[in-house]
Amino acid sequence: MKGLYCKTGDQGDVKFILQETDVPNNIGNHEVKVQVKSCALSPVDFKLFEELKLGKEHISVGREIAGVVLQVGPKVTFFQPEDEVVGILPLDAELSGLCSVVIIDEFNLVQKPEKVSWFEAAAVMKDGLRAYTALHTLARMAAGQSLLVLDGASPFGVLAIQLAHFHGVKVLATALSAEDQKMLEELRPSVARVIKVWDSKEGLVDSCLEETGGLGVDIIVDSGVRLFEEEPETQLHLPHKHDLITLLAVGGHWVTTEQNLQLDPPDSHILFMKAVSLSFLNDEVWTASRAKQGRYLHILKDVVEKLSVGTFRPQLEDPVPLYEATVSMEMVQKKQARKRIVVKL
């Protein structure tokens, strides 16, 4: 059978390749053999693999899977053959999620509701986990608060908006293009304000302060920030860190995806005066550390439950066949795909 793997070249370039691979005949005590029905594609964080010393010649690609249990280990208690399951392969997984059969620990899977499609189940896992991690685990979201989601039309941004609406939070979101703006304005429940950052006439700070009566927003979830005034053109759509600090409310919470965020003493002083807290969003920590395995499984179960009742409605491209996976993955890695791409097996 074939799986999707990536290899870094000498010049730092990345190649995605479909190659033949074999599934081990024996499975461990707590392992489950799953026939994969669909697998969602997400960007590969090569820097994280290096820092965790997981660097291999070929890194498996495609980790959010949905499928049917074929066989269970002797000590597995959560599942039995023919169960429909969904989950996320760990970072050190040898097999690609695009293999027709994978072996995975039972503690990385949850039951898939019957009325949920294979494609939606795989598509919602990663973004749903990120949304829960950002808003519940890190920001301690509560009803009546206000939230700013930067790049709200991204697959993650859409689920973060839907999760916030479910909990009675007022949501503001930025749109990077006229197409994104149209999509956000059509969401139901509706976003309180769509901020057109692609339009130079509309300022992010002024719009947020106007919408909150000058008090600022309680929670910010960014998709990256500019640290300096002079930045490459590819980062011009990102807000400057000073803008986000300015529009935070007293006692607010900033959840950032910027790994190399640099705060100068004046920045820290403003955050101190506002009693603001800052958190870094790294949803991979759930599988990199087993310290909170029970909470991780609880989140996954809640994600698929919200999908089954319609709270979560992921933005999906049409399912793609396996032979188009390499081209699709290149688009995902370059962040050219505006909707979640799922491979049909």
The percent range for helix content is 25-40%
- Helix/strand-derived class? alpha/beta
N-to-C SSE series? Answer: EEEHEEEEEHEHEHEHEHEHEHHEHE
Rg for CA atoms: 21 Å
Backbone shape: globular
Total E-strand runs: 16
pLDDT below 50 for ≥5 consecutive residues: which ranges? none
Q: Quote the distance from N terminus to C terminus.
A: 11 Å
- Counting copies of identical and different chains, the oligomeric state is single chain
**Tally of DSSP helical segments:** 10
Approximately what portion of the residues adopt beta-strand conformation? 15-25%
Arithmetic mean pLDDT:
92
Q: Tell me about the largest β-sheet.
A: 7 strands, mixed
Give your account of this protein's structure.
The chain is of the alpha/beta class and 345 residues long. 29% of the residues lie in helices and 25% in strands. It has 10 helices and 16 strands. It has helices at 46-51, 118-138, 155-166, 178-185, 204-211, 241-247, 265-274, 285-288, 293-308, 325-333; strands spanning 2-8, 14-20, 31-40, 59-60, 64-72, 84-88, 101-105, 109-111, 146-149, 170-175, 193-196, 217-221, 248-256, 277-280, 320-321, 342-344. The strands form 3 sheets. Strands 3, 5, 6, 7, 8, 15 and 16 form a 7-stranded mixed sheet that branches. A 6-stranded parallel sheet has the order 11-10-9-12-13-14, sandwiched between helices. α2 (118-138) packs across α3 and α2 (118-138) packs across α9 (293-308). The longest helix is centred in the middle third of the chain and has 21 residues, at 118-138. The chain is globular and about 60 Å long. The chain starts with a strand and ends with a strand.
